[in-house]
Amino acid sequence: MPSIFTPYEWFARWCVERVFGLDPATRLGSSLEFFLYDVPKVLTLLVMVSFIVGTLQTWFQPEAVRRILGGRRRFFGNVAGAGIGIFTPFCSCSAVPLFIGFLKGGVPLGVTFSYLIAAPMVNEVAVALLWGLFGWRIALTYIGFGVALAIVGGIVIGLLKLEKWVEPFVWEVPLGAADVETMPLRARLKEGWRSMREIVGKVWPYVVGGIAAGAFIHGYVPGDLVVRWAGPGNPFAVPVAVLLGVPLYANVAGVLPITEALVGKGMPLGTVLAFTMAVTALSAPEMIILRNVLRPQLLAVFIGVMTAGIIAVGYLFNVIL
Length: 321
Description:
Radius of gyration: 21 Å
Distance between the termini: 21 Å
């Protein structure tokens, strides 16, 4: 069935056969066709989604988020925190000021973690890439599981009442004044355009590099090797993939194109998406930054809860997809 990306598919096949004179059935031809099709498709989606989310983000400035979440009860606050996290894709470097601002503003610790789990894991880059690589059903499923994981993880941390393991200086930092600015629609669209250019400008090399790696895997890595390591016959494939992803740092834009190729080689989708979640939500730089405001005990609890949750999500993905 034709789609909006069908012209890209035709273009990739035409280039392989007519421009390079290759057979798409060969390893090189297959890899090249994979690359030429995925690059424009993923970049197109990334531009579209980044512009939309960048525009929506103007309604969700950090101070406004703090006011919305402050004082809400457990569960409802976790749901709100995870939901808002989808539309506020702040980078890891924003974790410390956001964490301090939320806690100083009366946002419960568990709700704060629901927000911080959802914001980096369910962002516009991940959604655009998943949509382009696996289709909208997989993208929506990923969003649903990611939000559920953020809600449950925040609730668990909140129930444990671990505020004593937040570094004491956090409570002493003065809270900045609210910056409430009423922006006209034209200004919001302009900000969306600026945000889109900034995001695409930063991640496009990772997209191209990730797709190039995925194209190599697609054409040259034997399928039986991947299946033997992490295929349906290995009951420990999901935890192994997650444990490998926890200490690893890689941009989500570079990881997801590789997961597409691994799925094509026979690795279950739940296994590779669990790996992606671990890399995205538990990246080494974010853990180092969070260590500035969390004592090692709380950081360890956070990593443990997230690791267990992602493993569970990976198994569920494999069952339902």
